[in-house]
Structure formats: C-alpha cells, structure tokens
C-alpha cells in the first residue's frame, strides 16, 4: 500500500509540474491568445513558443547545475527578463572573442540563478481568475484621430 501511495504522490508531482509548465508557456510567454489566422501559421506559432520555452528551460538547467540548485527553484519569469537585460550587452560585446563570450555566458547563468522561487510546500491554487479581464472598446479609428478627439474633450 505504501508503494502505491508513494507512486501516486510522485505522479501528482509530475502532473503539477506539467500544469505549471503549460501555465508558464501560456501566461509568461504570452501564448494565451494566438495571433495567427491560418492553421499553418498557428501550428508554426505554437512550435515557436515550445522551442523558446525549451531554450529558456535549458538555460535555467545550466544555471542550476552551475550553482548546485534544483532547476525548478529557478524563476521561469526571471529567466527571460534576464536574457532580455543581457541582450544589448551580447549584441555590443558578442564579437570580442571566445573567452569573453564564455565569461559573459557564465555571468548570464549567474544572473539567471539569482532569480529563485520560494519553497512553498503544500501550496495549491484554485482554478479561478483573480479578477476579470478589463474590457475596452475596439479601436475602430486611427490612433491619431482618437488622440485628437480626446484632446478636444479635455480642452472643453
């Protein structure tokens, strides 16, 4: 009985991690709304998000291994933000030589590993939205026309 219960707990943890991964792909990577219109482009958009997700997780894994921490304790939201922060430096200094690029990559992994997720045992999340999305009217006129109309209302 104890073996079956521990196997069930192990499967529940794997299931929970899969749920978190899907949530990360959808919310953090802004895939909650697909922007393409044709099935071929939607397929390409989904695969692009999955590849980007795998690349980010690979960098997180390397950062965790370098620092001897659990890869799941590294923040998925913090990793892309760190990559974006390092992008100008990589663009500007990327051609300086292999040793410099290696040192820059190690610093990038250090910065990724700093962003940690707190250990919250026995945490569970309700499947409800905290607040409904804000509804705005669709923009049916050019932005500059709407800005002029807004300026006229303020001036009155």
> What structural category arises from helix and sheet content?
mainly alpha
> Biggest sheet, in brief?
none
Shape verdict: extended
Annotation field: number of helices:
5
Helical content (DSSP H or I, runs of 4+)? 55-70%
Number of DSSP-assigned strands: 0
Radius of gyration (Å): 22 Å
How is the secondary structure organized here?
Layout: H1 2-28, H2 39-67, H3 78-93, H4 98-114, H5 143-155
Write structural notes for this entry.
There is one protein chain. The protein is an all-alpha fold and 156 residues long. The chain contains five helices and no strands. Helix 3 (78-93) runs antiparallel to helix 4. The longest helix is centred in the middle third of the chain and has 29 residues, at 39-67. The chain is extended, with a radius of gyration of 22 Å. The mean pLDDT is 83.
Q: Short description, anyone?
A:
This protein has 156 residues and is mainly alpha-helical. 65% of the residues lie in helices and 0% in strands.
């Amino acid at each position: 009985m104890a073996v079956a219960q521990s196997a069930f707990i192990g499967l529940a943890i794997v299931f929970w991690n899969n749920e978190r991964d899907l949530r990360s792909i959808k919310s953090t990577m802004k895939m909650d709304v697909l922007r393409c219109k044709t099935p071929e482009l939607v397929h390409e958009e989904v695969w692009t998000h999955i590849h980007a997700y795998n690349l980010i997780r690979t960098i997180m894994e390397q950062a965790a291994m370098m620092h001897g921490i659990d890869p799941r304790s590294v923040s998925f939201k913090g990793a892309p933000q760190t990559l974006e922060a390092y992008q100008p430096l990589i663009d500007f200094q990327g051609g300086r030589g292999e040793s410099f690029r290696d040192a820059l990559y190690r610093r990038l992994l250090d910065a990724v590993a700093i962003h940690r997720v707190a250990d919250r045992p026995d945490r569970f999340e309700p499947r409800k939205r905290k607040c409904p999305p804000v509804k705005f009217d669709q923009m049916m006129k050019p932005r500059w026309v709407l800005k002029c109309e807004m300026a006229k209302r303020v001036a009155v």
